[in-house]
Amino acid sequence: AAKREGRGNFQFFSEAMNAATHEHLLLENRMWTALEREGFELHLQAQVALDTGRVIGAEALLRWHDPELGAIEPSRFIPIAEECGLILPLGDWVLSRSMQLLADWQRDGLAGMRLAVNLSARQFGGDALLSRLDQLLAQHRIDPSRMELEITETAAMRDPESTRHLLRQLRARGFKLAIDDFGTGYSSLAYLKLFSIDRIKIDRGFVKDIETNPNDAVIVAATIGLAHSLGLSVIAEGVETHAQWGFLRDKRGDEGQGFLFARPMPAREFREFLRTQAQPVPGS
Ligand code: C2E
Ligand code: MG
Ligand code: MG
Ligand code: MG
């Protein structure tokens, strides 16, 4: 019986695997097409100063709408894009589109706004990223300090020595640097000292239950304190309630991002959103 069960399990797993491989191949195929036909879009989600609620910038988030499959979440397509290498041309498109957005803002009197852009670990390798960024800077003539590059903690720790090297080079060019999803990876605060970064983004997972889970509350408060004592600023992800905002503000967190302030939205809508905020954007 055990044998038969074993075989049954194997069959079950292999069918599940086939389905996964099939989906993977399908999405991979459709993504290459989307890349050729401008099927990707960047949405922008506001980032606000916690003390005033004023919008200080935005994070660029990839969106993909396939004509047949509909909208597909980044959490589904980005891991596949990373695995098959498509993240390289896709990440390049994100960088180029982001520089274009910054150039538009600069031209339209929004030069003080910061744009945060997600980088994948696959984009770190070699000098390709640096030379591409140099090329884009020359082309768009934007102020690099208006662009913040986000790398996840996990990606940064994959090869800490080469990450350290890359971050130094990026910083020398004037880019801002943030560690994304902070607290979810296997790492310690000690390495923060090693990396030349400007900001850490506290993961949504810690913010979610900040009011009800004393451990999360302590972790968030301690993280803010430690970051500040290292000279880093802190942004919290996934702020959804006024109580969460209040907590983070009390603990002297610097910035927040979340559905409470704004959902991610198309670039044009974001401009409208800024107008309705009716606040002066900090100087250029
Ligand atoms: P992330 O960089 O940590 O981005 C924040 C995610 O949290 C976004 O999900 C955003 O829509 C979501 N979010 C923001 N505020 C709230 C909130 O108040 N409540 C909840 N429940 N969620 C909130 P999204 O857009 O689905 O992106 C997921 C992940 O995909 C991103 O996580 C990032 O790791 C990756 N990603 C997105 N765009 C890019 C990109 O251009 N390049 C790369 N390499 N990765 C990207
Ligand atoms: Mg991010
Ligand atoms: Mg994040
Ligand atoms: Mg996150």
Automatic annotation (TrEMBL):
Q: Where in the cell is it found?
A: Cell membrane
| Span of domain EAL | 24-278
Lineage: superkingdom: Bacteria
Q: What is this protein called?
A: EAL domain-containing protein
Q: Which organism is it from?
A: Massilia agilis
Q: What high-level taxonomic lineage is stated for the organism?
A: Bacteria, Pseudomonadati, Pseudomonadota, Betaproteobacteria, Burkholderiales
Full protein segment contained here: 797 to 1080 of 1080
